[in-house]
Amino acid sequence: MDVIVLQLFLSLILFYIVKLIGSISYSLGYSSLSDIQQQDNSFSYNAVVRIFSPTVYIILVSILFYKLDLPRFINNIWLVSFYYSIFTILLIIFLGRWPIINKSKIIIYSALSVLSAYFIYTKYINLGLNHLLPEIENTTTELWFIVIMFFYKVLDTPSDDWGQSQKRLEKYVLNKYFGYKGKYISFLKKYDKRFQNIVFAIMILEDFYRPAHIRFFERILHRFGKAKTLGIMQVKTKRLISDEESIRLAISRLLPKYTHYMRITPSDRIYEHGIIDAVVQHYNYDDYSSKVGEIYQIINNN
């Protein structure tokens, strides 16, 4: 039992390590599962990180356990990769990301990751420390380096997944939009279509990052001072509020900026991105307006 608990713990550590690698290596093409703008700019880099990170991880951990004379913790250590894959998929589902991700790619990555870890475990790790540490007369390290670099170069071509990713995103956004429009349009009827769509775009983005079941726990944490924003619009508040109240509060904060921008800007110089930048400024983090803008365009074009 203690071995299984340790493996589960190691899989959680692996998850955060891969996440850290992704944040550091974003410019190299790593695609984050937490980002609503899913664009796989470099298929090969994502494949290498997601498939081989667990294998490299269990090799290093196994060497550590061998050095500490704890060989029993190495028994079936390949399962760390399996638990990591299951945990990742469950987290994607829990956070509501499943509708917009490339499901087949995630499943393939996970399967290859587990198979890679199992192969290395049976072929090298399980046979002892001397099969893991490189030696001058041992060509295994060089062989694997060549194989990995070969596949990296083969796969290092522009991904055509962006079109499919965009279709999934549009379907997700429109499903949310029509659902929220039917439920919350009464709060926005007296405002023009442009302002309505900005509010719905923010609503969809905030709900993406904080789905209903997450907001439920936020309401509990708020009682202990651990959550600062509440409701579907994620409004900063010191009191408990409902989704409907958060919409009213968000409108009261967004409308003055919208009205001011429309009043001072000549009609021939009114651009959608300019309006969105002005309205959502300081509502959330630095890159917020670009995400709201993308959702707004999807709503506006349908």
Task: Please provide a brief summary of the model.
With 302 residues, this protein is an all-alpha fold. Helix content is 65%, strand content 1%.
Description of the structure:
- This protein has helices at residues 2-24, 43-67, 79-94, 103-123, 140-155, 161-184, 193-209, 212-222, 243-264, 272-280, 288-300, and strands spanning 229-230, 235-236.
- The protein is mostly helical and 302 residues long.
- The chain folds into 2 domains: 2-159, no CATH class; 162-300, Orthogonal Bundle (Lysozyme), CATH 1.10.530.
- A two-stranded antiparallel sheet has the order 1-2.
- A hairpin with a 4-residue loop joins strand 1 and strand 2 (235-236).
- Helix 1 crosses helix 2 (43-67).
- The N and C termini lie far apart (54 Å).
- SSE-based structural type: mainly alpha
Could you estimate the helical fraction of the residues in percent? Answer: 55-70%
| Strand percent estimate | under 5%
For the secondary structure, the number of strands is: 2
Q: Give the termini distance in whole angstroms.
A: 54 Å
Number of domains: 2
Mean pLDDT, all residues:
82
Largest sheet: 2 strands, antiparallel
The succession of helices and strands, N to C, reads HHHHHHHHEEHHH
- What's the helix count? 11
As residue ranges, the low-confidence spans are 26-31, 39-43
Trace the largest sheet across and list its strands. Answer: 1-2
**Rg measurement, Å:** 24 Å
Using the alpha-carbon principal axes, give the shape: elongated
